[in-house]
Amino acid sequence: MKVERKFDGVYFLADERAFLATENLKPGESVYGERIERVGGKEYREWDPHRSKPSAAIQKGCRAFPFARGSKVLYLGAGSGTTASHISDIVGDEGKVFCVDVAYRPMRDFLERVAKKRENVVAILSDARHPLLYRWMVEECDVAYCDVAQQDQTKIMLDNCELYLKPGGHAVIAVKARSISSVARPEETYREEARKIRDAGYEIVEQVDLEPYAEAHRMITSVRKGRR
User: Fold this and answer.
1) What CA–CA distances, in Å, run from 195 to 57, 79, 182, 222?
2) Are residue 39 and residue 95 in the same domain, yes or no?
3) Is it the case that residue 202 has pLDDT exceeding 90?
4) Cα 196 from chain centroid?
5) What's the pLDDT at 228?
6) 219: domain CATH number?
7) Has residue 11 got a pLDDT over 90?
């Protein structure tokens, strides 16, 4: 099987078909029934773009991928942990993933499937609209990633970035157009959310549409300018 490095900790594997994967931080353990392959003494977990928006962005050709070994990541809307587990693989033992979700049931699953088994993951059951509630748990971060299905999702990300994202750090949001407006065209929604991000003092470095993997979604990656 051929292994090709795409980004830090992210690889394309190819046999009869090519698929995206991350190197498994916990060899021998799957998280959600994903395919596992051992190649050259290393173990890789398939990263399904239909179940994970950063994987979809890579499949759609993104160039800006700020997650890397040693990164500290604030993840807003972690759900049951599918994507968070792959980010955990990428940042490795040197990094940390602070995972926030307000829903009890997904967080319960997240604890069982991911947080209890991975020392670099911190589970936070809290409302991301109130970032001060978990200030005692979160360190200054290199990346803030937001994947919440709320009308004010961009504001939620920016409020958290104000507290936790270091200057020069990356803010990444999977904009869900239909959660923001059910009547506006997605392109209008994307344009307006990008304006809000720029007005808050961020430089947008990339925008990637995620269809067909995620309908009416766009990944917007930006860099926080200035100093605290």
Assistant:
1) 21, 27, 19, 12
2) no
3) yes
4) 20
5) 46
6) 3.40.50.150
7) yes
